[in-house]
Specification:
The protein is an alpha+beta fold. It has seven helices and eleven strands. The structure holds zinc ion (ZN).
Length: about 300
């Protein structure tokens, strides 16, 4: 599943390919891909003629900002991909929505397993993304009122790569939680964009055991974790993301980060730091990879 670095890579590529392009019309091949507005015919009417101003990312979602202030969201979920196709490219049987651009290209939303969702929202309320407070600020839409784009993300936690996400803020957020670190890093209301790959990588870098309760970390632990999360994500972006299964960049090329991961899917292979074998365990139904030697419990007690 694409996480922050993979989605950021898609957004940056798309910015180069489609910023300034006008969507002539859209063809929806799989109606359930359209989350908002409904029905899909209405989405098709509303998106026709829109010009894409710029492409960004929030959490694990691609945001296409339109000239008129509206925002189209593309949540790739498991197997979604956005591909720019040159004129004459053969049709793709897995393209669920095809946006025909005025310049003759097509922006194709491809999704083999069909879990991804596309929405079109009124603008507003996205400022202060890095200051997201998580579920606390979640508001309920009043009957019939349309969500603005900011409200779509009001349940999400802060963006870990934004300047406002400091070690002090992370410490504050961790100190009130007793959840296991691995579980908390995957919680999108705690921190946005981190998934299974980068949670494991960050904990290995920070030398923290995945089962450590969040409120058991001291100041030095928190600083290491803060640095580790940001480094793991930044390196992921620099390597254009990690490709597993169906994730591909806009150009159709897989990212190079998978070969550079330290623990994720490296069970029984030697740890890059100590040479001992990486272990796998299941935490909250998620596969978790770690080095029992480097990521010990405090006081040197035995890990699970
Ligand atoms: Zn190790």
């Amino acid at each position: 599943m694409p996480e922050l670095p993979e989605v950021e890579t898609v957004a940056r590529d798309l910015q180069r390919w489609v910023a300034g392009a006008t969507i002539s019309d859209a063809v929806v091949h799989w109606e359930r891909t359209i989350r908002h507005p409904q029905p899909a015919e209405r989405f098709v009417v509303e998106i026709a003629g829109a010009t894409i101003r710029r492409v960004t990312r929030r959490a694990k979602t691609v945001l296409l900002h339109l000239e008129d202030g509206r925002v189209m969201t593309v949540a790739l979920r498991m197997t979604g991909a956005l591909i720019v196709a040159e004129p004459g490219t053969p049709d793709d049987p897995y393209a669920r929505v095809v946006f025909r651009l005025a310049n003759g290209r097509e922006l194709r939303y491809r999704d083999v397993r069909k879990f991804g969702r596309i929405g079109l929202w009124p603008g507003g309320g996205l400022r202060g993304i890095g200051a997201g407070r998580g579920a606390r600020s979640k508001r309920v839409a009043e009957g019939g009122r349309r969500y603005r784009i900011g409200e779509v993300f009001s349940g999400h936690g802060p963006e870990p790569l934004q300047r406002g996400f400091t070690a002090e803020r992370l410490a504050e957020r961790l100190s009130t939680r007793s959840a296991k670190l691995k579980t908390l890093l995957l919680d999108q209301s705690f921190i946005a964009g981190v998934g299974n790959i980068y949670a494991d990588e960050a904990l290995w870098r920070a030398r923290l055991h995945p089962l450590r309760p969040a409120d058991s970390l001291d100041q030095r632990d928190v600083r290491r974790l803060h640095r580790a999360v940001r480094q793991a994500l930044r390196e992921g972006i620099a390597n254009r993301g990690a490709s597993f299964s169906d994730y591909v960049g806009v150009d159709g090329e897989p990212g190079a980060n998978a070969e550079r991961l330290a623990v994720y899917r490296r069970t029984e292979q030697p740890c890059h730091r100590c040479g001992r074998p990486i272990r796998r365990m299941v935490v909250g139904q998620r596969s978790t990879h770690f080095c029992p030697h480097c990521q010990r419990w405090p006081l040197g007690s035995e890990s699970t």
